Amino acid sequence: MKLGRLNHIGIATPSLAASLAYYRDIMGATITHEPFDLPAQGVKVCFVDTPGENGPNGPTAGTQIELIEPLGENSPIHGFIAKNPAGGQHHMCYEVPDIMAAKAWFEGLGKKVLGEPRIGAHGTPIFFVHPKDMNGVLTEIMETPKDGAH
Ligand SMILES: CC[C@@H](C(=O)O)C(=O)SCCNC(=O)CCNC(=O)[C@H](O)C(C)(C)COP(=O)(O)OP(=O)(O)OC[C@H]1O[C@@H](n2cnc3c(N)ncnc32)[C@H](O)[C@@H]1OP(=O)(O)O
Ligand SMILES: [Co+2]
């Protein structure tokens, strides 16, 4: 199996409002989606894009940062925020063409897949692989949107 592009970097925060202001006003990022609740994932989320630049191969799109704040009692990021009260880098998300094939591939390698695929913030199925099996990085795998949207 081959991983596709890096879709987003997940940043956990105790305050979406404060993080949004930081990325917009200090880092020059663009808010591409206003905050919305995702109860199925136990988070409140919004996306910002880094400005993007002219690279050696022409103009490059900015990189997407996904800001997540705990939502509800059972949020999977409560533990992370308890250990990192100011928030911090939480996960990296890679695209794949076929979510079930990717799940089977990681499981075949003996990696701990956390639960069954569920619909994520981009409207396609996602799953997570435990950081202890992924060089310390919580890894999100996401099926590439069929319409090519990111
Ligand atoms: C916006 C929606 C969606 C999208 O479409 O993009 C998302 O991105 S949702 C993002 C939030 N959802 C998830 O993270 C779901 C999967 N995560 C989990 O199930 C849990 O967070 C976890 C990975 C199992 C950790 O849960 P926690 O309660 O913190 O467990 P432990 O306390 O037992 O931690 C075990 C161990 O792992 C270390 N850890 C925890 N989180 C991370 C992390 N993000 N990155 C790296 N390491 C992490 C933790 O410190 C423990 O280490 P030790 O203390 O050394 O044992
Ligand atoms: Co994510």
From TrEMBL:
<keyword id="KW-0479">Metal-binding</keyword>
<comment type="similarity">
    <text>Belongs to the methylmalonyl-CoA epimerase family.</text>
</comment>
<feature type="domain" description="VOC">
    <location>
        <begin position="5"/>
        <end position="144"/>
    </location>
</feature>
<dbReference type="InterPro" id="IPR037523">
    <property type="entry name" value="VOC_core"/>
</dbReference>
<dbReference type="GO" id="GO:0004493">
    <property type="term" value="F:methylmalonyl-CoA epimerase activity"/>
</dbReference>
<dbReference type="GO" id="GO:0046491">
    <property type="term" value="P:L-methylmalonyl-CoA metabolic process"/>
</dbReference>
<dbReference type="InterPro" id="IPR017515">
    <property type="entry name" value="MeMalonyl-CoA_epimerase"/>
</dbReference>
<keyword id="KW-0413">Isomerase</keyword>
<dbReference type="Pfam" id="PF13669">
    <property type="entry name" value="Glyoxalase_4"/>
</dbReference>
<dbReference type="InterPro" id="IPR029068">
    <property type="entry name" value="Glyas_Bleomycin-R_OHBP_Dase"/>
</dbReference>
<dbReference type="InterPro" id="IPR051785">
    <property type="entry name" value="MMCE/EMCE_epimerase"/>
</dbReference>
<protein>
    <submittedName>
        <fullName>Methylmalonyl-CoA/ethylmalonyl-CoA epimerase</fullName>
        <ecNumber>5.1.99.1</ecNumber>
    </submittedName>
</protein>
<dbReference type="GO" id="GO:0046872">
    <property type="term" value="F:metal ion binding"/>
</dbReference>
